[in-house]
Amino acid sequence: MRAAASPARRRVGMLTRRGLIAGALACSASLPLAAQEAAPVVTVYRSASCGCCGAWVDHMKKAGFETKVVMTEELAARKREFGVPDAAESCHTAMVDGYFVEGHVPAADVRRLLRERPQARGLAVPEMPVGSPGMEVPGVKADRYDTWLIAKDGSHTVFASH
137 with 130: CB under 8 angstroms? Predict the structure, then answer.
């Protein structure tokens, strides 16, 4: 038969349970803050005359990215500065956390890039495929396209297919 715990022993047990509950509540309260931690700012270099670039910026904002837009007519110089290969070029270039994002790359691919952090220059969706983010055309079937991962040496592999 088990002896009843003394009042002092019950108090110690309660304090431990109270401490455990308080600790659990404190930890759970901080989880939403960590989960909502802001993604790095996406700085987009684009021409003022390009409407699809603005639509891609809207796509990134809707996906939760903070964006900063820099209007420039010197896009070729930015692309060279960031190491975008000629074969990967599109209409706008962005930089995020040390990577370039060339063209109409889906936000989900950018999130994956930032999560996996590969040794690479960045991502690219060459040209301007119909149906890619910012290039949607109502009533027109979307093109199939690939997002390329551009390696440090300028070569590419398929990062995602859409």
Answer: yes
Residue 105 contacts residue 147 (beta carbons within 8 Å) = yes
| Tokens 């070729």, located at residue | 76
Nearest to 70 by CA among 41, 99, 98, 97: 41
Asked whether 131 and 143 are in contact (CB, 8 A), the reply is yes
Bridge partners (DSSP) listed for residue 43: 68, 95
| Nearest residue to 114 via CA among 53, 46, 36, 41 | 41
pTM of the complete model: 0.76
d(CA 10, CA 85): 70
* pLDDT tens track for 107-126: 999 999 999 999 999 999 99
The Cα diameter of the chain in Å comes to 87
Number of H helices, E strands in the chain: 4, 7
